[in-house]
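In response to reviewer comment 3 from the previous cycle, which asked for concrete evidence that the modeling workflow produces usable outputs, we include below a single protein chain processed end to end. The sequence was submitted unchanged, and the resulting structure tokens are shown without manual editing.
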Amino acid sequence: MELVLSGEPDLRVAGTASDGAEALRLIRHRRPDIVLLDLQMPVMDGLTCIQEIRKLYTDLPILILTTYSEEEFIFRALAYGANGYLLKGLDSDQLASRVREAAMGRYLLTAEVAASIARYVLNSDHSIKQSGILRFFERSPQFTKTEQTIMLRLLNRLPNKEIAESMHFSEGTIKNYLTTIYEKLSVRGRKEAVDYLEAMAARGLHG
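The workflow returned the following structure tokens.
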């Protein structure tokens, strides 16, 4: 990504960071015109980083570039102050163009993200269920963002293959994550995990 953007004559990469805390330090030190941020980062995740950036700079454009396509992550990122939400897979010209647009203060959503929002709004049962499970996640810091994403897909009853494809992981990697998730939930398999998550989603709606 750095090579792609650095190759554009009107763009200059002010710095790159390997985690959210480092990103925040670089932003304070170098004062970039725009921040390109992933949601999945160690030390400080992208959603937290957005909130911390907004405490310091209310007008700094923040553009999310991630593999997370779940509506909840989209809504939370935008609610916390992101100016745009893009899914990884854009070609170099598209990425450079989106960065320029965001730097000019425009709000950006890819077609896929806009479609996800529309589906979320139209499917009220889904919206209610997901709202409940998000409250469960807020009370369960033992789960990583990747594990939360997989659990959201479990709740939507996606098979391992589709989960793997949507997250750009191998099926083996998803199975390894599921093993860890089952251990943390204290369940014996997928059915018990889905039943447990359904119950936690329902409980989350009532505080």
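The chain has eleven helices and four strands. We consider this sufficient to address the reviewer's concern, and the full set will be provided in the supplementary archive.
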